[in-house]
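ARCHIVE CARD
Drawer: 12
Card no.: 0347
Subject: one protein chain, sequence and derived structure
Cross-reference: see card 0346
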Amino acid sequence: MKYLNISAFLVIFILIFSCTSEENKVDENILYADITLSSQEQVDNFSSLGYEQITGYLKIGGLSIIEGESKITSLEGLSNITSVGRDLNIEDNEALTSLEGLDNITKVGNALYITNNIALASLKGLDSIALLGANLYIRQNEALTSLEGLEKLTELRGTSLIYSNNSLTSLKGLDSITKVEGMLYIADNSSLISLEGLKAIDSVGENLTIINNLKLEEFCGIKSIEVIGSLFISGNFDNPTLIEIKSSCSTD
């Protein structure tokens, strides 16, 4: 799989059109490659190519920026993209406040990683993603207050991790999820007070771990779970058992 780290239109042109192998072929609207965009200039230059599908992974962000280029502040230039074949990785963006521009992506073939985006307050812009092939990692996003933007997801596969998002107060945005095939790990979210957003989940294939969320006291969001591999609740403001949750929460 071809790896592209794009810094200018000419570099993109040379890298893409010098590929001759079947693995790295280029179709009219499909890019058979892995893409890393780590500056605003790279985002804007890539947008001019008009690709709608990426068969490899798409990484947006990174701590290393080429001299003379600027931090990513807008993803509007990526609005042509409708699918990512492998991982969609949005990480280490210090100035990115919005994911608007990714609105047309409906499918991520493997994992979605949203990590260490310190100014990102919302996941709106991911509203069209209906299929996620594997892991969901949302961690260390200091300004993130909810998970709104993920409403089209109906199931989680692989490992799902919601970790150390210190402004996150609820899990609203996961409201359409009815099934977790793998593990769901919710930990160290210091402002989380409620599991609202998980109310539709009726089964967790492996373990559900809810630990060290110091303000978490409302657990009715998991009252509908009927099938679960294991449940571990510890280090929160309150630490009820599933039986206690079902008994104390309304059936409305």
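Annotation on reverse: The longest strand covers residues 203-211. The two ends are 51 Å apart (CA to CA).
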